[in-house]
From TrEMBL:
It comes from Streptomyces bullii. Keywords: Ribonucleoprotein, Ribosomal protein. It comes from the Bacteria. The gene is rpmE2. Belongs to the bacterial ribosomal protein bL31 family. Type B subfamily. InterPro entries: Ribosomal_bL28/bL31-like_sf (IPR034704), Ribosomal_bL31 (IPR002150), Ribosomal_bL31_B (IPR027493), Ribosomal_bL31_sf (IPR042105). Coiled coil: none annotated. Gene3D superfamilies: Ribosomal protein L31. This is Large ribosomal subunit protein bL31B. GO terms for cellular component: ribosome.
Amino acid sequence: MRKGIHPDYGPVVFRDRAANYAFLTRSTMTSDKTIEWEDGNTYPVVDVEISDVSHPFYTGTARVLDTAGRVERFERRYGKRS
């Protein structure tokens, strides 16, 4: 990599506020907020709205939409196209 054109890549804690879950990884994201991690070190923390812990797809609570029923209901209401 060329020097001086890439952002710093270092440890960052991502915290899912919805599930009260945090994980330490490496990233180029930065934050003014910090958190003391389990190892005793202080790392920048980035709050996220949703992660794999709280996302409905990963938790198994995703709803499957009945698209066939919607099409049939539309056709009943407005008639089929000729």
